[in-house]
Amino acid sequence: MNHEALLHRLGAEIKLCLLDPTDSGHPANVKPECRLCLCWLCLRLRWRRTVNLGMLGAIFKKAPHTPPHLFVPNALYMLTASTYRSEPFMQTTERKLNWIKTFLTSAEMYKWEVVAWVVLDNHYHAVLKAPDSADNLPKFVASYHRFTARNWNEEEQASGRKVWWNYWDTCIRSEYDYYNRLRYTFWNPVMHGLVKDPNDYPFSSYKVFLSKWKVKFNFTNMEEVKNVPEF
């Protein structure tokens, strides 16, 4: 699905997001074939411990010492992960290129559509579209984390060394949220003082994204995203 089709679908979903859950037109109260939006669950789960997600096709999982995860089929996500103790394991060009290749290969294997990504010395951010089985996210992330960790530890003869820490995933709530998180991803090297313009940073999909982007949009005038872990 291209970006225009994605935004068209988002536009339809946003209208439903604005409805109150008690409204007869809300996704929880309409026919299954009409349930387009699950984004309202992202907000409600902040203060509700139990929600019946089964009938909506979403899965909410919590585990000790790890961030909670909401798995929604075909939804847009922002994904963030850091190296263990923020060590600069990806400081070299070779390491960043290795991460990029492994990440994109794993995304293809697990059917996650990559929209945007950026990788720095000790963390990365990405925006992706989930497949029908969004609950394969842990396996997807583990696949490239394990592969890169094993390779880098072999290079440095550091068998068993912990390379990656937890990852955070956020279900994108609206079109505006989508734009904000794209900006956050692409402008992350600027925020860290590595470059003055995202065009100058070679380890992101910014240039490729702009070459395919058909809608005139200024990424510089967006609000700061507050709920993304930074390292």
Number of strands: 6
Contiguous low-pLDDT stretches (5 residues minimum) are: 6-57
- Terminus-to-terminus distance: 32 Å
Strand content: 15-25%
In terms of structural class, how would the helical and strand content be classed? Answer: alpha+beta
Mean pLDDT: 75
Largest sheet: 4 strands, antiparallel
State Rg: 18 Å
Net shape: globular
- The total count of helices amounts to 7
Strand order of the largest sheet: 4-5-3-6
Query: Percent of residues in helical segments?
Result: 25-40%
Structural summary, described in words:
The chain has 231 residues and is α+β, with helices and mostly antiparallel strands. Helix content is 34%, strand content 18%. The chain is built from 7 helices and 6 strands. The protein has helices at 3-17, 40-44, 93-109, 137-155, 175-186, 188-191, 206-212, and strands at residues 59-63, 66-71, 76-83, 113-119, 123-129, 164-171. Strands 4-5-3-6 form a 4-stranded antiparallel beta sheet, sandwiched between helices. Strands 1-2 form a two-stranded antiparallel sheet. Strand 4 and strand 5 form a beta hairpin. Helix 3 (93-109) packs antiparallel against helix 4 (137-155). The longest helix has 19 residues, at 137-155. It is globular, with a radius of gyration of 18 Å. The two termini are 32 Å apart. Residues 6-57 have low confidence and may be disordered.
